Amino acid sequence: xxxxxxxxxxxxxxxxxxxxxxxxxxxxxxxxxxxxxxxxxxxxxxxxxxxxxxxxxxxxxxxxxxxxxxxxxxxxxxxxxxxxxxxxxxxxxxxxxxxxxxxxxxxxxxxxxxxxxxxxxxxxxxxxxxxxxxxxxxxxxxxxxxxxxxxxxxxxxxxxxxxxxxxxxxxxxxxxxxxx
Length: 180
What we know:
five-stranded antiparallel beta sheet, 10 strands, alpha+beta
């Protein structure tokens, strides 16, 4: 009898400790820098911020949403706060979270629910794959072109961002972060 109780306890303990840890998730809305809306994303604080808010939370800001212009037209882009190419306000430079667009469709993004899923689905992406910026749309008339992004946070955790068009020059984000 004691042997059966011991086996049951061991099985329960193994199933408890092997339970997949779910990703943390939040949603937010953003607008480009130069608007009155939230142009800055803090993944650690799980929200988007206005420039005023970002100034008081400088070390928590991961990305700015920038409307970049060049010979090909307007491009909607993420930029980290490293200040590498003078696209972000100098007063807010500091963090160097890195980003890369990935070719997940919505179903793949939705299927990524646990830390183990994240590792299995993105483990092949090395640290060298990340950059200080990523393009959401290279032609705004055609809307959002690149929907899914992978992020390498300063603490080594990874996150996924899904981008959809919102109303009035807004974008809607769903962000999934590796749990601690």
